[in-house]
Amino acid sequence: MDVTFQFDWQAAFASIPHLLPGIPYTLLISFAGLAIGFIIGIIFGLLRISPIGWLRVPAITYIEIFRGTPVLVQVLFIFYGLPQLLGGPINALVAGIAAIAVNSGAYISEIVRGGVQSIDRGQKEAGLSLGLSRRQTFRYIIWPQAFRRMIPALGNQGIISIKDTSLFSVIGVGELVRQGQVYIATTFTALEVYLMVAMLYLAITLSLSLVLRIIERKGLAGQ
């Protein structure tokens, strides 16, 4: 039997209005999770390079656990496992944000560590010789330089986290993939709909990449 398939562009474009409600959820989970993850990353990144050995242990443990396990497993543990410990359900949106936060935080910790350690030791010695305290030297000399060097890696992590939100359809978060699944269930146009889902993700990540390039250029110009 000769079966031919023709891509239905009309069905593809017709799916867009049904997919658009998923964009706010995708962006909310991504940026809220990344904002929390950035704070976590700074804390554990600095603990990771602390001269005090017992402070490095929890940082290393956290980083290795959350870098070494899939984000899908992490969100399933948060959404299905933690309620058994807490004695109450966790909202799917909150679970998604938490998963992005702890996962991105582990990677950002290593980005922070690498950025700070990339600054020449002479910069610290120069700050101290000028009469600055260790904290002032870090705040005004080390951190600004390190942060500029972190921008490309932080941007990459942001893009990865945006794409990771596509996994959260398994817990019912209404992001892009989930919206697509719901629409496909009634139209049976999987190829067309998933192509549009991919295009919308691509539009989001390309927009973020453009913004990050502008920030990176301005940061380099300010050096």
UniProtKB/TrEMBL annotation:
Alphabetical list of Gene3D superfamilies matching this protein = MetI-like
Alphabetized PROSITE patterns for the sequence: ABC_TM1 (PS50928)
Q: Do the record's keywords include Transmembrane?
A: yes
Q: One biological process GO term for this chain?
A: amino acid transport
Topology relative to the membrane, per the entry? Multi-pass membrane protein
Which SUPFAM superfamilies does the record match to this protein?
MetI-like
Query: Which Gene Ontology CC terms are recorded?
Result: ATP-binding cassette (ABC) transporter complex
What top-level branch of life does the organism fall under? Bacteria
Q: Which GO terms describe its molecular function?
A: transmembrane transporter activity
Which PANTHER family does the entry mention?
GLUTAMINE TRANSPORT SYSTEM PERMEASE PROTEIN GLNP (PTHR30614:SF20), MEMBRANE COMPONENT OF AMINO ACID ABC TRANSPORTER (PTHR30614)
Note the NCBIfam families from the entry.
HEQRo_perm_3TM
* Biological role: Part of the binding-protein-dependent transport system for glutamine; probably responsible for the translocation of the substrate across the membrane.
Q: Which family does it belong to?
A: Belongs to the binding-protein-dependent transport system permease family. HisMQ subfamily.
Identification of the protein by name? Putative glutamine transport system permease protein GlnP
